[in-house]
TrEMBL record:
Keywords: Membrane, Transmembrane, Transmembrane helix. InterPro entries: Thioredoxin-like_sf. Residues 1-13 have a biased composition (Polar residues). The chain crosses the membrane at residues 42-65. It comes from Paraburkholderia saeva. Gene3D superfamilies: Glutaredoxin. This is Cytochrome C oxidase subunit I. The keyword Transmembrane applies. The keyword Lipid biosynthesis does not apply. Residues 1-34 are annotated as: Disordered.
Length: 227
C-alpha cells in the first residue's frame, strides 16, 4: 500500500518527512497586532520621557533643590500679586491729578517717602537710579517712581540730582493699603517692583544690597518680553 506525505495546511505542499506541519501566526493575526501595538506604546512613552526630562529637571532644581539660600530671588515675591488700585490717584509733576495706573506698560521701581527726603530717602533714590542705569540697553523699560506722601517742596539738590525719577504725590493711607511691608518695618523702608501689567510683584528689604536688586531686575528683563 502506497503512503503519501502529509500536506501543509497553509501551502498544500507535502511537509518534509521527519518535520511536523507548522501553524505559524502571520503578521496580520490579532496576537501579532497586539505585540506591535505594545512596542509602539513603549516607544511613545520613551520619547515622551526624553522630551519631558529637561522640564522635570528644572522643576526639581527650582522647587526641591533650590539655589543656595533657599530662594530664587533676592526680593520677596508678593503673592498674590496686587494690581495698582484703579482708585489710586496721584498728583503729577505738572500739578495735575492722574491715575497711577497710567504708568502701566513698563517696569516700575517704587519708593515711598516724604517730600523733605532725608538721607535714607536719598539713598534709595540713588540705588534706584544706579540699578536702572546698569541695565544698559534695557534701561528704557524701567521707570523710577518716588511716591511722595505730602505736597511740600522737594529740595532743589534732590530734584536736580534725580530728574529722571517721576516724583508724584500720593495719599499715604492709600499707599499703605496697597503696599505690604515686612514685619517690624515701615513703608518708607522698602523699594518695590511693579510689573508692566500694573501688578505689585516684589518687595526688597530694608537697607538693601543694590547689586542683588540689580540681579533680580536684570533677570526679570531678560526672561520677560513685556514692558
Amino acid at each position: 500500500m502506497s503512503t503519501q506525505s502529509p500536506r501543509s495546511p497553509q501551502s498544500g505542499k507535502p511537509a518534509q518527512r521527519g518535520q511536523p506541519a507548522t501553524h505559524g501566526a502571520p503578521n496580520g493575526t490579532p496576537r501579532a497586532r497586539q505585540g506591535s501595538w505594545q512596542r509602539g506604546r513603549w516607544m511613545m512613552l520613551l520619547i515622551a520621557f526624553i522630551c519631558a526630562a529637561p522640564v522635570i529637571a528644572s522643576y526639581i532644581t527650582y522647587y526641591v533643590i533650590k539655589p543656595k539660600g533657599g530662594s530664587t530671588s533676592y526680593g520677596t515675591l508678593v503673592e498674590p500679586q496686587r494690581p495698582i488700585p484703579v482708585s489710586l490717584t496721584v498728583i503729577g509733576e505738572d500739578g495735575k491729578p492722574m491715575p497711577l495706573t497710567s504708568l502701566r506698560g513698563r517696569w516700575l521701581l517704587v519708593s515711598v517717602d516724604g517730600s523733605a527726603c532725608d538721607k535714607a530717602c536719598v539713598t534709595k533714590l540713588y540705588f534706584m537710579r544706579q540699578i536702572r542705569a546698569t541695565q544698559g540697553g534695557e534701561r528704557e523699560r524701567v521707570v523710577n517712581v518716588w511716591l511722595r506722601t505730602d505736597p511740600s517742596a522737594v529740595p532743589d539738590v534732590v530734584k536736580h540730582a534725580y530728574d529722571d525719577t517721576d516724583m508724584l504725590i500720593a495719599d499715604p493711607s492709600a499707599l499703605a493699603a496697597w503696599l505690604p511691608v515686612d514685619s517690624g518695618t515701615k513703608l518708607t523702608d522698602h523699594i518695590f517692583m511693579v510689573d508692566p501689567n500694573g501688578n505689585l510683584m516684589m518687595r526688597f528689604p530694608k537697607d538693601p544690597d543694590p547689586s542683588k536688586i540689580k540681579s533680580d531686575v536684570t533677570k526679570l528683563l531678560k526672561w520677560s518680553s513685556i514692558g
